[in-house]
Design goal:
Layout: H1 2-24, H2 32-42, H3 46-58, H4 87-92, E1 114-115, E2 123-128, E3 139-144, E4 149-154, E5 179-184, E6 196-198, E7 201-204, E8 211-216, E9 221-225, E10 236-241, E11 245-248, E12 251-252, E13 274-281, E14 287-295, H5 297-306, E15 311-317, E16 324-328, E17 336-339, E18 359-364
Antiparallel strand pairs: 1-2, 2-3, 3-14, 4-18, 5-16, 5-18, 6-7, 6-10, 8-9, 8-10, 11-12, 11-15, 13-14, 13-15, 16-17
């Protein structure tokens, strides 16, 4: 009897074991823990992943107090705050005005914009501590001048999968002379509460009321509510939906301070401090990205608001997915990616290699 039961168990487990082994040995650029997690979610074990992640992150919160090791990060050129109504300063530095720091007193150069990547791209980085309690944590902001840039939504091998796509799972070598930046997209589609549309194909139906990153046929980016701010039409190239807005009409939306809300992700809730990312647009249509460790929903939203966003939404969370790169160079031999934050876990060439997730590429217009 025991032998028969053992034989049944072996047969029952053989299929899942083979499937798991095949998944975690795929050469897709993802680390083992990501491959294992994605396999579990694909095999009705998402509840177990959610509970495990919530427990782990709940017991690994950022330290309180202290100062960042090394202070505020600096790029090659020192940051310069643009003086309003000063033509000379504006010519030398295309970045916006300083972001008002959250923690006081501010550290030297905290919130000051620094030009990043290609000089003609109009991309600037700034660094701040996200709240007044976890003062050793630094997160990054990227401001992108959309008069100089045009966007494309790239499609990953698994998310959304189902290729072939014109914009596939990595930046094409043909784009190397003009690629300026790339950043991560949102949650898995089945967890986003929304839909996905690109290249004339609806991968999952779009949902009215959902926060939406919209890419227009002229390369501009919009962030807003589908069915209110945007409707399907011939000028829509791509729509990536993810949860609810964080910032609307320059204000934090109601509920971002509710620790029990599931509007911005059921796995970790609003109050857990972890790696998070978000994107928004300012009053002139420029794009602002925020990402880094030690963020909850409210502090992420507040950073995007302080950076000038009129509307903003959450993108993906946890350290395996939060990444923004800028680029210099023009060929496979000279292309050089630089991370927004050095502590971002994925390698700097993440978007130059085939990947499982969708992402946004920004190229020079001229």
């Amino acid at each position: 009897m025991l032998a028969a039961c053992a034989a049944v168990a072996v047969v029952a487990l053989a299929g899942p074991a083979w499937s798991f082994g095949r998944a975690v040995t795929r050469a897709n650029g993802d680390p083992f823990v990501v491959k294992a997690t994605e396999w579990a979610r694909d095999h009705q074990l998402g509840w177990l992943v959610d509970r495990t992640e919530h427990l782990w992150y709940s017991h690994h919160q950022p330290p309180k107090g202290g100062t960042p090791k090394g202070g505020i990060p600096r790029l090659a050129e020192p940051p310069v705050a643009r003086r309003r109504h000063a033509r000379v300063a504006a010519t030398r530095n295309p970045c916006p005005a300083r972001v008002t720091p959250v923690a006081v007193p501010p550290l030297p150069e905290e919130g000051m914009w620094q030009q990043a990547g290609r000089t003609s791209a109009g991309i600037c980085f700034a660094y701040l501590r996200p709240d007044a309690v976890h003062t050793s944590v630094v997160v990054g902001l990227a401001w992108m001048n959309m008069r100089a840039l045009r966007a494309t939504l790239h499609n990953g091998t698994d998310l959304p999968g189902g290729g072939p796509w014109r914009a596939g799972p990595q930046i094409s070598t043909n784009d190397y002379p003009r690629v300026a930046a790339a950043f991560n997209s949102g949650f898995r589609i089945d967890a986003s509460n929304g839909g996905y549309f690109t290249e004339g194909r609806t991968v999952r139906p779009l949902v009215d009321g959902r926060a939406s990153l919209v890419i227009f046929t002229d390369g501009r980016i919009g962030v807003g509510v589908w069915g209110r701010d945007f409707h399907m039409g011939p000028t829509i190239a791509s729509v990536r939906q993810n949860l609810d807005l964080l910032v609307d009409n320059r204000q934090l939306v109601s509920g971002v301070d509710d620790a029990n809300s599931h509007r911005w992700g059921a796995t970790l809730g609003n109050s857990i401090y972890t790696w998070r990312s978000g994107v928004g647009v300012d009053a002139k249509g420029n794009v602002v990205y925020a990402g880094g460790p030690g963020l909850n929903v409210q502090t992420l939203a507040e950073l995007l608001r302080r950076a000038g966003c009129v509307r903003a939404m959450e993108l993906d969370i946890n350290p395996h997915w939060v990444t923004l790169m800028v680029y210099t160079g023009t060929s496979p031999a000279t292309i050089k990616p630089t991370k927004l934050l050095e502590v971002m876990q994925r390698p700097a060439d993440r978007y130059l290699q085939s990947g499982t997730r969708d992402f946004v590429e920004l190229d020079l217009r001229h």
